[in-house]
Specification:
alpha/beta; Spore Coat Polysaccharide Biosynthesis Protein SpsA, Chain A; about 20% strand
């Protein structure tokens, strides 16, 4: 049964380092932010979607395709901070799902799993997702964020480096079952009260060094649940990522 007290928020920032203004790219006939919005609509548990924009250009694009949008400060340090700014106005929502604006192929089932992890465990404050890595090139790609987690599915660490790092490389590590390596996917679910607390925490050095906001949670000592999905979502970080997405879309 869908939860009437969960909501998807998509933080949408106009400027990005490796692919400028990527959320407004529209070679498929739709902007990237519209693709992500439509992907998120496939989730069954959340009651709705709000896009948290940092610029009027993004907001205008969202209104054009009929999406709900809230303006947020351009000074937000991370997507989490942008989601928290909107969450402060949503006292009747229990769970907020942060879906990154550059995830046009995220499945509805993945979003539902992130919510379900919190609905199943009242003690859990935050959740995210991961998928097995079977491609050696990804292990050494800093854009592919890796995660390791414990037997209770609580995250131990996230890194742009290879973790765990094999003392001796063996090709069968890529095909092992259970998997050895996991890629972190760009989705989080938070209980509202925890999200508002998280936004007030200082950014620790490990977060600044890796440029990974989820490390703020681990540094502060909070458990972060990790759900595993078999189909990886492909975030759009570079011009090559976007070209490949356009090719996949046009081939449908």
């Amino acid at each position: 049964m869908a939860s009437s007290r969960s909501l998807i928020i998509i933080p949408a920032r106009l400027h990005s380092t490796r692919l400028p203004r990527k959320l407004l790219l529209a070679e498929t006939g739709k902007t990237l932010i519209q693709h992500t919005y439509e992907a998120a609509r496939r989730a069954k548990r959340p009651a709705g979607i709000v896009i948290a924009a940092d610029s009027e250009e993004i907001a205008a694009a969202v209104r054009q395709f009929g999406g709900a949008v809230e303006m947020t400060s351009p000074a937000c340090a991370s997507g989490t901070d942008r989601v928290a700014e909107v969450a402060r106005k949503l006292a009747d929502v229990d769970i907020l799902v942060n879906v990154q604006g550059d995830e046009p192929e995220l499945s509805g089932d993945a979003i539902d799993l992130a919510v379900e992890l919190l609905e199943r465990d009242p003690a859990a404050m935050m959740s995210t997702l991961a998928t097995p890595i079977r491609d050696k090139a990804k292990l050494h790609d800093p854009a592919c964020v890796k995660v390791v987690f414990d037997a209770r599915q609580r995250a131990l660490y996230f890194s742009r480096s290879l973790i765990p790092h094999p003392r001796e490389w063996r090709e069968e590590l890529l095909t092992a079952n259970p998997p050895v390596f996991y890629q972190h996917l760009g989705i989080y679910a938070y209980r509202r009260e925890f999200l508002l607390k998280l936004a007030e925490l200082p950014r620790p050095d490990i977060e600044k060094t890796e440029n990974l906001e989820q490390l703020r949670v681990l540094h502060a000592g909070y458990p972060l649940m990790v759900g595993v999905v078999d189909e990886p979502s492909i975030g759009i970080d570079t011009p090559a990522d976007y070209r490949e997405f356009v090719q996949r879309w046009n081939a449908r």
